[in-house]
Amino acid sequence: NKHHTIISSYADPIHCLNQQNDLPPNLTYTHSDCMRSICSKFLGGNKKKFSALFLVLCSLQLSLTNCTELRKLTSPAVRRNSFHVLKSFSTEKNNMLRKRINVRGGDAGDATSGNAPAATVVAPKAATAEVKAAEPAKSSKFRDAVFPIYGDEVKKFLLMGAIKFFVIMALTLTRDLKDTLVVTQCGAEAIAFLKIYGVLPAATSFIALYSKMSSVMEKRQLFYTTCIPFFVFFLAYDLIIYPNKDIIQPTLETATALLGGTKSGALEIVAKIFSNWTSALYFVIAELYSSVSVGILFWQFANDVVPIDEAKRFYPLFSQMGGLAPIVAGQYVAKFASQASDFGASLHRLTYAVTFAGIMICVFYSLSSSLVEKDDSSTRKSGGAAKPKKKKGKMSMKESVRFLTQSQYLRLISMLVLGYGLSINFTEIMWKSLLKKKYPDPLDYQRFIGNFSSAVGVATCVVILFGVHVIRVLGWRVGAMATPAIMALISIPFFICIFMGVDNPARLTLAVALGTAQSLLSKTAKYALFDPTTQMAYIPLDEESKVKGKAAIDVLGSRMGKSGGSMIQQGLVFLFGNILKASPIVACFYYSVLFTWLSAANKL
C-alpha cells in the first residue's frame, strides 16, 4: 500500500545516497531489506521517529557491513528508547549525513533529497495496533542492572556461564583436596617447595606443548586435548594410585636416610614430600589445572566468541556464575565428602563430583561451539560478511616468549598476573600453616576448607551483584586497581597479629580468623574484579597474541608468580626454620609487589 511504498523509498540507502552521486567507493550498502523491516515493524507513521531512526541506520551503514550488528537494533533495550541510540553518534557524523540525505523531521512533513517527492506517511490503524502490541514494556532498570542481556544473547550467555560454573566447581574440589593432602601430610611449608620444583617445571612443559598443539590443531580438538587428560588423572588417582600408596611410597624413615639422616627444618620438609610423593603429584597436577582451566579452557574460548561490545555486560556476570560454583562445591565437601568414615571414602565422593564436572564442561562447550557456528552461518546467509581473521605465521615457543617480552602491552598484563600470584602466595602459606595448627586432622581440615570455599562463593556473588557497574561506570582502570588496593588494606591486621605471636590458643584462633578474612576478601576481589578486567585487556589483541601470548601469561606467568613467591619463602624457611618467624620480611615483599601491581594497572 501507499505508506509501505513511501517507507521503502525512504529506507533504502542505495536509493537515497545514489541520487546525490557521492557514494564513497569503499562503502557498500546491502541491508536495505533489514532497514525497511525495522522501520515498518515499530515506527508506523511517526515522522519524527522515522527520521531519527533512519539517520541511525544510515550511520551504522557507513561503518558496518555485518547484518548481525543491524539486528541488534531490534533488541528490547534499543526499542525502548530509539532516540537514545541517536545521541550516541558524534555530531560531526550526524551533520555529514544530514547534508547528504537531507532528512528533515517535523510536524508539517518530511522532504527527500534530490528528485524524491515529499509525502506524508500514514499508517493504517491495524498496522499501528500491531506495532503497539509488539512494543515491550517500559524500561526495567532492575533488569538492566542485574541481567543486562537480551534476546538471542541469553542462550549464548547461559551455555558459556555453565562452562564457567563447572570449570570453577572442579577447580574448587581439586584445590580443597590438594591442600588437605599436602598440608596435613607434609606441612604448609611444603607448598613452597612443590611450587618451585614441581609446579613451575610442569607449567613450563605444558606451555611448550600447548604452543605446539595450538599450531597444528583446530580449536575444538585443542580444547578437548587440553581438558580431558586432567580429569583422567584425577580419576586414576582415586581408583589406582591412592589405594596402592603404601606400596609405591617410601616410609619417612627411608626418605630421611636417603637425605643423610638430618632432621633440620628444610630437609625434614623434603623428606615428608618424598614419603608422600603421590600427594605431591596430585598437588602439582591440580595446581596446573587451576591455571589451565580458567585461563585457557574458559577465557580463551570466551575471548574468541564474545565481541568487545558484549564483554562489558557478559564478563562481570560470568564471574557471578562462577561465584555460585564454590558455594555448591564447598557445601558438597563440608556436608557430604568430609562426613565419610575415613579419608579414602571421602576421596571417592570428591572424585565422583570432579568427574561429573569434567563431563559437563565438554558437553556445554560442544553446545556453545555449535551455537556460535550456527549464528555465523545465519549471518553469512542473511548477507552479512563475517570479517575474515588475518592469517599469521605460526611462532615457535622461543619466538612466543620473545614476542611476549617485546610487547609492552603484554608485559603490563603479565605484571598484573605476576602481582596477584606473588602476593596471594605470600599470605596463603602463612595462613595455611596456622590452619594446620588449628585443624591437624585431615577431615576437620577438609571440612573447614569446604566451608571457606562456600563463603568465598557467597561473597563473590554479593560483590558482583553490587559491584557489576564498577567497570561500566568508573572505568576499566578503577576495576583493575581495586584488587591490589583491597588486599593492601585488609592484610594489615593479619600481619600485626602474627607479629604479636600465636603461641596460645586464643591468639591462634584470632590469627586464623584474620587470615581467613584476608584470604576470603582477596579471592572475592580476584574473582569479581581482577579476572574480568584482566581478560578484557586481551580482547583488542590479534588472534595469535590472544592464543600464544595469553597462554604464556596465564600459565607460565601465574606459575612464575606463585613459584617466585615460593622461592623467596623457601629461602626464608632455610634461614628461620618456619615461615611464621619470617613474617616481617614477608610483609615487606608483599607490599612491594602490591605497589608494582598498582603501577602496572595504572599504565594500561
Automatic annotation (TrEMBL):
Keyword terms of this UniProt record: ATP-binding, Membrane, Nucleotide-binding, Transmembrane, Transmembrane helix, Transport
Molecular function GO terms recorded: ATP binding; ATP:ADP antiporter activity
Transmembrane domains' residue ranges: 157-174, 190-210, 222-242, 281-302, 314-334, 346-367, 409-427, 448-471, 483-502, 572-598
SUPFAM superfamilies: MFS general substrate transporter
Source domain of life: Eukaryota
Region (Disordered): 374-398
Subcellular location: Membrane
Gene Ontology cellular component terms for the protein in this record: membrane
Membrane topology, from the record: Multi-pass membrane protein
Pfam families: TLC
Protein family (similarity comment): Belongs to the ADP/ATP translocase tlc family.
Protein name per its UniProtKB record: ADP,ATP carrier protein
UniProt source species: Chaetoceros debilis
